[in-house]
Backbone:
């Protein structure tokens, strides 16, 4: 197969050494071109060019942001998407059952490429941009914004950096008194929210080795799962997240609303609110429009 290996050398787990290992493994049986990203949006342009040239697959080696850009670049084409974990959390790769070690993960990927184990999957779309596993609106995005301001520490601190950012944002960085946006699904009354996760897959994220399972029904073949926190009380937030961590799955209660298999929704408010897409902070907006797009991309399924 003809492959393009897109490498984000700034990602937390990407090194010169494991990049050589990954390249050598892929090149044993395939024709591999290697490119490195150096700015936001670069991976999308590389992936779009690979699709135009008719390459068989683009391998995203970096964090979840790199994966998102590559997925956006190949979506709607015959060029397949392949993923290798190179970031600090690697939500999508781990959701597919891949280990966090790139050297181990590339062996799984090579088996899938050798066997041409590829199938179409659905993606979410938010304001014209695809997402692989989730979009976070409100509090979640404010946490990611704070983490990105300390991006140089991600390679060394990893999950403790996210935990610290979540606590700081909850305490002093995000208003807990009034809702920040309205979630509109179909003809039902809008949901006033502080924190919404629109999920294309489950888990929402990982805390160390533990998956945070908000919606076990979310998968690559179903519609979107929408989990909206209508309160940021410590009791409601920690109780729901604790249940997701220990038991798996959350349900409607006085602090949150859950909707499954959603094909379309919108989020809006008179004042701007923050959002992040596949872990990449994208700023503030007053309106988001979501759709589920079946068979949006062809995915190399790791062995």
Residues:
């Amino acid at each position: 197969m003809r492959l393009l290996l897109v490498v984000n050398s700034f990602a937390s787990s990407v090194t010169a050494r494991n990049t050589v290992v990954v390249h050598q493994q892929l090149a044993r049986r395939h024709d591999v071109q290697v490119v490195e990203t150096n700015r936001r949006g670069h991976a999308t342009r590389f992936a779009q060019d690979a699709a135009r040239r008719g390459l068989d697959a683009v391998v995203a080696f970096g964090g979840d942001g790199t994966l998102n850009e590559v997925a956006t670049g190949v979506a709607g084409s015959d060029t397949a998407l392949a993923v290798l974990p190179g970031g600090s959390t690697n939500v999508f790769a781990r959701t597919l059952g891949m280990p966090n070690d790139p050297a181990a993960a590339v062996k799984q990927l090579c088996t899938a490429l050798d066997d041409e184990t590829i199938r179409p999957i659905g993606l979410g779309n938010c304001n014209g941009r695809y997402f692989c596993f989730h979009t976070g609106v409100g509090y979640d995005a404010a946490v990611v914004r704070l983490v990105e301001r300390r991006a140089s520490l991600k390679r060394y601190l990893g999950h403790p950096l996210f935990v610290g950012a979540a606590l700081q944002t909850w305490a002093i960085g995000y208003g807990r008194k009034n809702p920040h946006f309205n979630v509109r699904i179909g003809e039902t009354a809008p949901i006033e929210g502080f924190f919404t996760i629109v999920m294309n897959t489950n888990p929402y994220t990982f805390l160390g080795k533990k998956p945070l399972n908000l919606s076990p029904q979310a998968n690559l073949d179903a519609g979107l799962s929408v989990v909206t926190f209508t309160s940021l009380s410590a009791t409601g937030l920690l109780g729901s997240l604790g249940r997701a961590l220990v038991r798996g799955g959350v349900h409607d209660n006085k602090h949150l609303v859950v909707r499954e298999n959603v094909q379309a929704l919108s989020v809006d408010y008179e004042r701007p609110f923050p959002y992040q897409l596949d872990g990449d902070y994208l700023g503030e907006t007053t309106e988001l429009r979501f759709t589920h797009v079946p068979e949006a991309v062809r995915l190399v399924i790791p062995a």
Summary: The chain has nine helices and 16 strands.
